[in-house]
């Protein structure tokens, strides 16, 4: 796993779910960690985006945590590992005695490896609770829910590589791959367009994805700039248009009748739902001309193979599950599933968010998406683990935060930063500060969440250890670490093994990541056929049930993985965001990301290359709104919601729709999450980060340092 010093190791970029291969070399000096391209890496063939190229910059950053810390009288002091771990174990034991096992919550980390997330969920379940979750809850929980219930598996149905040759239309809704998955966009999507594919982008904001498809000599890009939260009506216009054309010209290929008859159920439900649907009124609600939506519908339905890509603009709504269900409806009625260049594809966020879910770090599923309340599934895992698994699904991570002080008294947070990433940050912070009995944070930096911890455990980074991660198209790949380990830090895996062993004697004694992987594959059918040797440098897509299986680049060729093998169509109706504009808060606030920053910014804000490009937060405001509120481009403005306010620079631009303001969650001093609403999708429990009500005004008393004083 480790190399000789100076020898570059082949590993995977620690940022996004594209899973680009990179090489890393350790120099002689501390702080001398070098990035090198990996020319024939399977996903990216050597190309990287700005983040991949800058990834090594934070490995030896001076802010790295170096020793375990224990808080005493409100101040941290350095502690030995033995002291810190004893404290963690004692607190966990006393919480269980006093409140039972559901008194604890566990946050896995999509920044850590499959083996580590496998261990944290095993630890939670051995402790006696299913209360373990990860950032997918704030990310694609709704997508995973819709895909799993309607098609069978909570993952991309296709892969990036099978687009290139075959997709005729790329339908990109609520995703900005030009910035968030840049290599997928440049290497696969743009390539498909150069070869003749058309792109339909559905997003309220113009961005680098929009720019990237303005290719000279081609006119194959449409941008439907809708109002945030109107994706259901927009897709209903698309669906109704296809149904109408089919009725006018049956058999002309608008609907794939054979596919609908043989492989789906629920078509009648869809037609009934749309029977009295008024397309003109819906288009007005979306703020998009009806003829543009109709043209997009035609292009999608007329394509031989059309692939849908779906992102946070769809998932992060209280109607997130229904949003994605409507995309599934579109793919099913046109037969765009179970073949190359098609499908419904969530571009997964973090470098290992797919894997973190696959290995069971979620409150309702065991490894391999086996439902925790399914007796047979539970028993098969219990046989390997040798202890009883609780049958009741646990709370999700945002629910765990909501239950702090009520049923939840202790939290084990590995590699997440909920104080900045969860919605309604002011309230989240109050709960963590005032109502949480015990908090342990295992991270590489002193995050906003770690500041509030009782014990902080310093972990090694991705560059210092080995394990596996699973990218957005289900490719399980090995990461390899260089020799050195920073100061007195420990690998996440070793920390979890030690905590587990101190608590339970058995079940947590592993000889490194490969040993953990061997147990993981025993309990996880979709990864059962994988070994470290077989993964090699190319990796393997799941499902890989038996050794020697190559894995599938697309799913559902013959049938869906539902109980009856059919894909489920279900008509859905518009639901407004839970908070809509009114006189007091007249604007729609939506939040999303920048290419140069990453989630809560703990890594990207410390990278000189990345933070130089975008040093502070800002808000995009349409020129008509700017005029209405007396705002000039570059002014400091106060952006306010019912839950809080931030002071940021105004960027007056036509990139955003009138009546909508757009900002980011990346910066500690002015995070979007001071403003966002913590209402959840009922089923998937994902927060509505993409729509709230806000007001804006010029800052008459600019705060000292304003929004620019970020660490
Ligand atoms: N550079 C960079 N890359 C990243 C990340 C990062 O922070 N920075 N984070 C990673 C993670 S964890 C994730 S989950 C992915 C996320 O990647 P994306 O899914 O692309 O996420 P966002 O940028 O949050 O949102 C996508 C788009 O949704 C649009 N949008 C907002 N509201 C709506 C709406 O109501 N409807 C529609 N249709 N669109 C809407 C926004 O304008 C935005 O362009 O990126 C990953 N990659
Ligand atoms: N307003 C708004 N809020 C959002 C979103 C949005 O679009 N808008 N998007 C949501 C989404 S999609 C997501 S995924 C979440 C992300 O929410 P989080 O997962 O909380 O955010 P990250 O910044 O990715 O946190 C990862 C943490 O892991 C640490 N880390 C990195 N490497 C390691 C390691 O090897 N070991 C350990 N132990 N720690 C490590 C980092 O320092 C960092 O603190 O944010 C959500 N919040
Ligand atoms: S596209 Fe994603 S995985 Fe590839 S280099 Fe950029 S951040 Fe890393
Ligand atoms: Mo995410």
What does this structure look like?
By secondary structure, this protein is an alpha/beta fold. The chain folds into 3 domains: 69-136 and 351-541, Rossmann fold; 141-346, Dimethylsulfoxide Reductase, domain 2 (3-Layer(aba) Sandwich); 587-698, Barwin-like endoglucanases. The strands form 8 sheets. A 7-stranded mixed β-sheet has the order 5-4-18-17-16-6-7. A 6-stranded mixed β-barrel has the order 23-27-24-26-25-30. A 5-stranded parallel β-sheet has the order 10-9-8-12-13, sandwiched between helices. Helix 9 crosses helix 13 (290-302). It starts with 8 loop residues before the first strand and ends in a 13-residue tail after the last strand. The model is unreliable at 702-711 (pLDDT under 50). Iron/sulfur cluster (SF4) binds next to helix 1 and helix 7.
Helix content: 25-40%
Q: How much of the residues is beta strand, in percent?
A: 15-25%
How many helices? The count is 25
Shape: globular
Q: What is the mean pLDDT?
A: 95
CATH C-level of the largest domain: Alpha Beta
Unreliably modeled segments: 702-711
Named CATH architecture of the largest domain: 3-Layer(aba) Sandwich
Broad structural category: alpha/beta
**Separation, N- and C-terminal Cα atoms:** 34 Å
Question: In which order are the strands of the major sheet placed?
Answer: 5-4-18-17-16-6-7
Number of strands: 30
The count of domains is 3
Characterize the largest beta sheet: strand count, sense, and whether it forms a barrel.
Answer: 7 strands, mixed
Q: Enter the CATH topology name of the largest domain.
A: Rossmann fold
């Amino acid at each position: 796993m480790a190399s000789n010093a100076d020898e570059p190791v082949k590993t995977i970029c620690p940022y996004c779910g594209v899973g680009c291969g990179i090489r890393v070399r350790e120099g002689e000096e501390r702080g001398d960690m070098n990035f090198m391209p990996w020319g024939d890496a399977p996903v990216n063939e050597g190309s990287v985006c700005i983040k991949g190229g800058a990834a090594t910059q934070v490995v030896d950053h001076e802010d790295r945590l170096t020793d375990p810390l224990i808080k005493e009288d409100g101040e941290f002091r350095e502690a030995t590992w033995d002291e810190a771990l004893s404290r963690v174990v004692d607190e966990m034991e006393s919480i269980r005695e006093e409140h039972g096992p559901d008194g604890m919550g566990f946050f896995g980390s999509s920044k850590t490896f499959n083996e580590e997330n496998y261990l944290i969920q095993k630890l939670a379940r051995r402790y006696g609770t299913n209360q373990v979750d990860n950032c997918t809850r704030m990310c694609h929980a709704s997508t995973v829910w819709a895909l799993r219930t309607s098609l069978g598996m909570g993952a991309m149905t296709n892969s990036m590589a099978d687009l290139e040759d075959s997709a005729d239309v790329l339908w990109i809704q609520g995703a900005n791959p030009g910035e968030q998955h840049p290599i997928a966009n440049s290497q696969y999507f743009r390539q498909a367009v150069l070869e003749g594919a058309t792109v339909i982008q559905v997003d309220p904001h113009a961005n680098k994805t929009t720019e990237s498809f303005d290719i000279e000599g081609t006119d194959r890009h449409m941008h439907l700039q809708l109002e945030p939260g109107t994706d259901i009506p927009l897709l209903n216009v698309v669906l109704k248009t296809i149904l109408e054309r089919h009725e006018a010209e049956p058999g002309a290929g608008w609907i794939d009748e054979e596919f609908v008859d043989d492989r789906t159920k629920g078509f009648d439900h869809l037609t009934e739902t749309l029977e009295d649907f008024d397309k003109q009124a819906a288009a007005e609600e979306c703020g998009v001309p009806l003829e543009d939506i109709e043209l997009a519908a035609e292009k999608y339905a007329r394509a031989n193979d059309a692939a849908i890509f779906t992102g946070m603009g769809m998932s992060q709504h209280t109607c997130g599950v229904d949003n994605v269900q409507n995309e599934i409806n579109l793919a099913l009625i046109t037969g765009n599933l179970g073949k190359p260049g098609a499908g419904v594809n969530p571009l997964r966020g973090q470098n290992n968010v797919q894997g973190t879910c696959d290995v069971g770090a979620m409150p309702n599923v065991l490894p391999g998406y086996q439902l925790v309340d399914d007796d047979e599934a539970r028993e098969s895992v219990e046989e390997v683990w040798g202890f009883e698994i609780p049958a009741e699904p646990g709370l999700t991570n945002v629910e765990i935060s909501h239950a702090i002080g009520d049923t939840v008294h202790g939290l084990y947070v590995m590699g997440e930063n909920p104080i900045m990433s969860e919605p309604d940050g002011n309230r989240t912070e109050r709960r963590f500060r005032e109502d949480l009995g015990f908090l342990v944070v295992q991270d590489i930096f002193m995050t906003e969440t770690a500041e509030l911890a009782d014990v902080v455990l310093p972990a090694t980074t991705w560059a210092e250890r080995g394990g596996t991660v699973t990218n957005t198209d289900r490719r399980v790949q090995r990461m390899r670490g260089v020799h050195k380990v920073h100061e007195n830090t420990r690998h996440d895996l070793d920390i979890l093994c030690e905590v587990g062993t101190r608590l339970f004697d058995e079940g947590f004694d592993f000889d490194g990541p490969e040993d953990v992987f061997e147990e993981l594959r025993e309990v996880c059918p979709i990864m059962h056929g994988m070994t470290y040797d077989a993964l090699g440098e190319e990796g393997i897509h799941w499902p890989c049930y038996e050794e020697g299986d190559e894995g599938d680049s697309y799913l559902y060729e013959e049938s869906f993985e539902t109980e009856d093998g059919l894909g489920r169509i279900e008509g859905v109706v518009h639901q407004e965001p839970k908070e809509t504009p009114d006189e007091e808060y007249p604007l729609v606030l939506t939040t999303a990301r920048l290419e140069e920053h990453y989630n809560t910014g703990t890594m990207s804000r410390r990278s000189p290359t990345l933070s130089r490009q975008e040093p502070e937060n800002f808000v995009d405001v349409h020129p008509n709104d700017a005029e209405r509120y007396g705002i000039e481009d570059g002014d400091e403005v106060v952006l306010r919601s019912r839950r809080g306010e931030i002071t940021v620079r105004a960027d007056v631009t036509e990139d955003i729709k009138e009546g909508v303001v757009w900002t980011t969650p990346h910066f500690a001093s002015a995070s979007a999450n001071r403003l966002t609403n913590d209402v959840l999708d009922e089923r998937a429990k994902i927060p509505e980060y993409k729509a709230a009500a806000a007001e804006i005004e010029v800052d008459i008393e600019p705060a000292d340092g304003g929004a620019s004083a970020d660490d």
